[in-house]
């Protein structure tokens, strides 16, 4: 009897071990499928992400191609500005948006006129980015804090965003516009006066005239 009970216990143990082995093997077989499914969901970018990535590449490509044509770029910006002003004049509103656009362009213009390294922060004032004052001095080009291309790009984006805002009534805040005009003119005069004093104090001009060349005499 004892031998039969022991045989039954051994058979039960063997069946239990076999069942555990089958379960573990089935679980391990299913793991790679789950991992591959996860990789297909999280590893690969979505169609929307690919679309915006491709759109950004096309936009950057057009920006790179337009870099040498500064006159054409600024002509387009002036036309957009004129269209925006005509729209604001016809609608008789959105003066706050126009005022914010003017302040933004003024800040861009000041950065365009300012040197990349502020001479007031240097220990030696002679190390500032000043241009030569006579023919015997070494040629040193003026390096701007805001380059011309970035100035144009930011200004154009500001105009387009302001144009989009005119299509939403939420941005049409009622205000007495002559006060905004007077305040902007006063702010422009004060800012430009301070910028001109800075130029005179540290002896620099925000323009590079080009290096002087000499012709050989025959």
Automatic annotation (TrEMBL):
<feature type="transmembrane region" description="Helical">
    <location>
        <begin position="96"/>
        <end position="113"/>
    </location>
</feature>
<comment type="function">
    <text>Involved in the retrieval of endoplasmic reticulum membrane proteins from the early Golgi compartment.</text>
</comment>
<dbReference type="GO" id="GO:0006621">
    <property type="term" value="P:protein retention in ER lumen"/>
</dbReference>
<dbReference type="GO" id="GO:0006890">
    <property type="term" value="P:retrograde vesicle-mediated transport, Golgi to endoplasmic reticulum"/>
</dbReference>
<protein>
    <recommendedName>
        <fullName>Protein RER1</fullName>
    </recommendedName>
</protein>
<dbReference type="Pfam" id="PF03248">
    <property type="entry name" value="Rer1"/>
</dbReference>
<keyword id="KW-0812">Transmembrane</keyword>
<dbReference type="GO" id="GO:0005783">
    <property type="term" value="C:endoplasmic reticulum"/>
</dbReference>
<keyword id="KW-1133">Transmembrane helix</keyword>
<dbReference type="InterPro" id="IPR004932">
    <property type="entry name" value="Rer1"/>
</dbReference>
<keyword id="KW-0472">Membrane</keyword>
<comment type="similarity">
    <text>Belongs to the RER1 family.</text>
</comment>
<feature type="transmembrane region" description="Helical">
    <location>
        <begin position="175"/>
        <end position="192"/>
    </location>
</feature>
<dbReference type="GO" id="GO:0000139">
    <property type="term" value="C:Golgi membrane"/>
</dbReference>
């Amino acid at each position: 009897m004892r031998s039969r009970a022991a045989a039954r216990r051994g058979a039960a143990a063997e069946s239990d071990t076999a069942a555990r082995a089958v379960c573990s093997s089935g679980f391990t077989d299913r793991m790679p499928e789950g991992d591959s499914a996860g990789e297909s969901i999280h590893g690969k970018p979505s169609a929307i992400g690919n679309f915006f990535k491709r759109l950004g590449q096309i936009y950057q490509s057009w920006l790179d191609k337009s870099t040498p044509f500064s006159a054409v770029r600024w002509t387009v910006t002036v036309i957009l500005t004129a269209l925006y002003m005509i729209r604001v004049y016809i609608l008789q509103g959105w003066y706050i948006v126009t005022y914010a656009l003017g302040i933004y362009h003024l800040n861009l213009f000041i950065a365009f006129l300012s040197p990349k390294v502020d001479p007031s922060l240097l220990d030696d004032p002679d190390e500032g980015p000043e241009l030569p004052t006579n023919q015997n001095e070494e040629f040193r080009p003026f390096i701007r804090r805001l380059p011309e291309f970035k100035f144009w790009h930011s200004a154009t984006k500001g105009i387009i965003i302001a144009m989009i805002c005119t299509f939403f009534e939420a941005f049409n805040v009622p205000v007495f516009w002559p006060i905004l005009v007077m305040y902007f003119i006063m702010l422009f005069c004060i800012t430009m006066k301070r910028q001109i004093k800075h130029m005179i104090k540290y002896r620099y001009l925000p323009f590079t005239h080009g290096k002087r060349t000499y012709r050989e005499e025959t």
